[in-house]
Design a protein that fits this description.
Blueprint (H helix, E strand, L loop, with lengths): L1 H29 L10 H29 L2 H25 L2 H30 L4 H27 L4 H19 L17 H13 L4 H28 L5 H26 L8 H17 L7 H32 L5 H29 L3 H21 L1 H15 E6 L11 E6 L6 H8 L5 E6 L6 H9 L3 E3 L6 H20 L3 E3 L19 H7 L5 E9 L17 H13 L9 E9 L1 H7 L4 H12 L12
Parallel strand pairs: 1-7, 2-5, 2-6, 3-4, 3-5
Antiparallel strand pairs: 6-7
Helix pairs in contact: 1-4, 1-5, 1-6, 2-4, 2-8, 2-12, 3-4, 3-6, 4-5, 4-12, 5-9, 5-11, 7-12, 8-11, 8-12, 8-13, 9-11, 10-11, 10-13, 13-14, 14-15
């Protein structure tokens, strides 16, 4: 409750601004559109949407610069004061029934919103700190969609009453309320980074370079921008579709848009709450795919007839979609706030604004293109397919999300217990050298799915990059290519020397690296390092700031993924295909989970002591440590 009170003034300022945006948009769509012939109304509606977002495309770079020169609270206050004369232009447009004046007001409102958007979102961390990000983003977006709800509904109802006094009264009242609430914002503002360019093209290039420093952040921004594309597309098309195909009045359409806004608001609040307690970003692809499938159902089912019950079912289905995409949005918002350094946050937010409103502009253009050749229902099909495709792309290109999904699938088959995991928690300035046992093909999947947030970099033989899919996955984990040690003679010696240099460089640079000392999966259920030299050589060059953690894995010997009963390791791809078949046929429901115990042990002191021994003695000590507990044989099909 204290957190909500901290953010309340910012929430109110945002909600009044969004309400005014949507009242104005609804009036232009429903009232100003009647000033032209029916065949031109679709163009007016889409042009209105474009007029609101074009300023974001052109002026987001400038908005990112403003916090370098002015306090964010002052930017917000000034923007809200400018809203009052903009409403005067809008009222004149309605008075003279002049499309140019009405569109000019929408354009100016878009400019005003664009210029203070990075500042208002940048204030979230200033007000609530790191721990308040999820609450701040969830509340901010929930209040924004509450404003959209009220604004769209009020504007739709007002459009059925031809009263200039009513239009002027509501628009000016909301503008003044926004000014008053902005005066009460309190925040401890942080210093901003070096300023960025105001040239949109140069800004895009410079900001993209900053985004690349945060691995995977570009995918987060693109998927979040897709959310805004999706919402803009649906809002625009419903204004046309509900009237033409469902026979709804402006007020009834307003009811539907308001109900969907309630759904998004509920979804945002729920997403903010859930994101505080679990890794909701891992659920984002699933939510996107579900929402996309529901949009395809909207296209397939016969909702395009003027029937009250069908209109009701249509509204219920669209509201469910709204709730899902509301939950979908918040983990993406929070990820930007969590990962980006405070000094660069405003630049990144400005970049996000620019990208997202390019997407919104694209929604207007694709809607115009589709509706010129096909019925409006095809917009639902197109939106659903795109949302599903991008969500799957995100799953396969964002490490945390992919690990979360793999972890959930693995835990359908395995009961995994992690013991002494705190051994991996090193203080700032230290790094990890992690040395696991190699019991089965699946143990790397288990380790990286369970330890995705430790930023481990595996050392992997260069030959694995020959498979493009495997190479893509390895790149997601910042895997380091190491030379092929199977070569013999002088070339083999050179490869070993090159490998030693790679290990030394990675450790000295503070990377958390992982490799398997044995270099192969056990054939007899026991670890056998033999004549391998990789761990031994690492012990000779181990930096003072590196902690060595050994990982013992028990419970996989005798599983499908182990080498029990084989003379060599089975190929990975056929094994994966068999597991997918096992999963799709739901056979895991009828097989008890296999118990897997993973134990982490800090062996830094022993590792340094063993380094004084000859290589054979060192490897013998490692073997003795790994084989101190016998791995019992349990035969199963998983």
């Amino acid at each position: 409750m204290n957190k909500i009170r901290q953010f309340f003034s910012l929430y109110l300022t945002n909600v009044f601004g969004v309400m005014n945006d949507n009242v104005l948009k609804a009036l232009v769509c429903f009232v100003a559109a009647t000033w032209v012939q029916p065949e031109y109304q679709s163009i007016i509606v889409n042009s209105m949407a474009a007029a609101m977002v074009i300023p974001y495309v052109l002026f987001s770079p400038l908005a990112g610069k403003l916090p370098h020169f002015f306090r964010k609270k002052n930017i917000v206050k000034t923007a809200k004061i400018c809203e009052i004369p903009i409403m005067a232009v809008a009222v004149l447009g309605f008075y003279f029934q002049n499309i140019a004046l009405a569109m000019s007001a929408v354009l100016c409102m878009g400019l005003q919103s664009a210029l203070f958007s990075p500042a208002k979102y940048g204030l979230i961390k200033d007000i609530g700190g790191e721990e308040g990000i999820s609450m701040g983003m969830g509340g901010m977006e929930a209040f924004a969609f509450l404003g959209m709800l009220i604004g769209t509904f009020v504007g739709s109802v007002m459009s059925d009453h031809n009263s200039l006094t009513l239009y002027a009264g509501v628009l000016f009242a909301l503008a003044c309320a926004g000014v008053l609430s902005s005066l009460t914002i309190k925040a401890q503002e942080t210093a901003e980074a070096e300023e960025s360019s105001a040239n949109p093209i140069k800004f895009l290039r410079e900001s993209a370079a900053i985004v690349k420093r945060y691995k995977g952040l570009g995918h987060v921004i693109m998927l979040l921008s897709l959310f805004w594309w999706f919402c803009a597309s649906i809002q625009i098309i419903l204004i046309i579709h509900c009237n033409s195909y469902l026979g709804m009045t402006n007020t009834h359409t307003g009811y539907l848009l308001a109900t969907m806004a309630i759904g998004i608001t509920v979804g945002c609040l729920l997403g903010g709450k859930l994101n505080q307690h679990r890794y909701m970003l891992g659920q984002v692809p699933r939510l996107g795919i579900i929402a996309g499938l529901l949009m395809i159902i909207v296209f397939i089912l016969p909702f395009n007839t003027m029937d009250n019950y069908r209109a009701l079912y249509f509204g219920i289905l669209m509201t469910i979609i709204a709730i899902i995409v509301g939950i979908f949005k918040i983990p993406l918002d929070a990820e930007i706030q969590k990962r980006v350094d405070t000094s660069e946050l405003n630049v990144i937010l400005a970049y996000f604004n620019l990208i997202s409103f390019i997407f919104i502009l694209g929604a207007s253009l694709t809607n115009i293109l589709i509706t010129n050749f096909l019925p409006t229902t095809y917009v639902f099909l197109f939106d659903g397919l795109v949302l599903m495709a991008w969500s799957f792309y995100f799953l396969m290109n964002y490490k945390g999300s992919l690990c979360y999904r793999v972890r959930n699938i693995i835990r359908l088959h395995y009961d995994i217990k992690m013991n002494n995991k705190e051994a991996l928690d090193v203080p700032k300035g230290e790094n990890l050298l992690i040395l696991p046992m190699h019991r089965a093909l699946i143990d790397p999947l288990i380790l990286f799915a369970e330890l995705y947030n430790y930023k481990l970099q595996p050392l992997v033989d260069a030959r694995f990059w020959q498979n493009k899919f495997m190479g893509h996955i390895l790149n997601l984990f910042d895997a380091v290519q190491v030379p092929d040690l199977r070569r013999g003679g002088r070339e083999g010696v050179e490869q070993v020397q090159k490998l030693d240099g790679i290990v030394k460089t990675q450790l000295e640079n503070g990377a958390n690296i992982l490799f398997y000392p044995s270099g192969h999966i056990t054939l007899d259920g026991k670890e056998n390092i033999g004549n391998r030299r990789m761990a031994y050589n690492a012990s000779k060059i181990l930096p003072a700031h590196t902690r060595v953690v050994a990982i013992e894995i028990h419970g996989l010997w005798g599983s499908r993924w182990s080498n029990y009963g084989r003379t060599r390791t089975a190929p990975m791809v056929p094994m994966l295909l068999k597991s997918v078949k096992f999963l799709l046929l739901l056979r895991f429901l009828f097989v008890p989970k296999r118990k897997v115990n993973i134990r982490f042990t800090d062996i830094t002191a022993d590792f340094r002591e063993w380094s004084q021994l000859p290589r054979q003695g060192f490897n013998a000590k490692m073997d003795e440590f790994y084989n101190r507990e016998e791995d019992g044989l349990v035969l199963t099909k998983i």
